[in-house]
Write a structure and sequence with these properties.
The protein contains eight helices and eight strands. By secondary structure, the chain is α+β, with helices and mostly antiparallel strands. This is Peptidase C51 domain-containing protein.
Length: 260
């Protein structure tokens, strides 16, 4: 091949590289809720898309870090929590299905007791790409008791609410917890177990007379019966040893009867 066609082929290849890079799809994160506490300004540029955790932290002002499913427990004792939506609160989703790390979103508006608008990131794929921000999208409470334990959320590809009933921990409010909640958290913390001290001393058997065994009791009773049984012949012997002359004499018989 001559140098001219070779240079032309090289130029065409270089021109195609940017378009190939743009066409390469970004691998989606099935969890989409990871956060290692890195500064948002650095992390947002480092990631190929925005995750829900730094976005929820930014729009709500709630300073919690780590994966989304850890936010609810982290908030205990630091932020107020509840089951009613408020503007600025963060709704904490439990892990469910492919959403292994949970999800967090900020409440932007309360419509009624069962409907709110959310601001969150990395929920709906938009234009075929994940990691997109969505503001003022609808979420509806579908729990039987209207306690916001299950919700359906707007899903862009469907143009409406998704069909999944997502389990929810509750709402984290950007305010200090009430005194009762703080006390409950302290009470539930693991306390050191007290050392058990027995009230029974080493001399607890002192003064207790052991109960005699049945064998010893039987032997004692048998001995008493033997003594009484042997006593009668002795009395008879005493009676029979009276002088024969007294037995024949009337007075002797009286004396003998007295001796008996």
């Amino acid at each position: 091949m001559s140098p001219a066609p070779l240079r032309l082929a090289s130029l065409l290849l270089l021109a195609a590289i940017p378009s190939l890079a743009e066409a390469r799809p970004i691998a989606p994160d099935p969890a989409g809720a990871s956060d290692d506490g890195t500064e948002e300004s650095t992390r947002d540029f480092a990631l190929p898309y925005i995750q829900c955790v730094p976005y929820a932290r930014k729009v709500s002002g709630i300073q919690l870090y780590g994966d989304a499913h850890t936010w609810w427990d982290q908030a205990a004792g630091r932020y107020a929590r509840g089951t009613r939506p408020k503007v600025g609160a963060v709704i904490a989703f439990r892990p469910y299905g492919a959403m292994r790390l949970g999800h967090v979103a900020a409440v932007s508006r309360v419509i009624d007791s069962r409907t709110v608008l959310l601001r969150h990131a990395n929920w709906s794929p938009i234009d075929g790409r994940r990691g997109q921000m969505e503001d003022n999208v609808r979420a509806v409470d579908v729990s039987p008791d209207n306690d916001w334990s299950e919700v359906r959320v707007w899903y862009a590809p469907l143009g409406g609410l998704g069909t999944t009933h997502w389990p929810v921990e509750g709402f984290i409010y950007n305010q200090k917890p009430l005194r009762n909640e703080r006390l409950a958290v302290l009470a539930s913390a693991d306390a050191p177990k007290a050392t058990y001290t027995s009230r029974i001393g080493p001399d607890f058997l002192k003064g207790i007379v052991p109960e005699p065994s049945r064998t010893a009791t039987r032997r004692t009773l048998a001995a008493r019966v033997t003594v009484k049984a042997e006593a009668k012949p002795h009395e008879e012997d005493r009676t029979l040893t009276v002088s024969p002359s007294l037995a024949r004499d009337p007075i002797g018989r009286i004396i003998a009867s007295r001796v008996r």
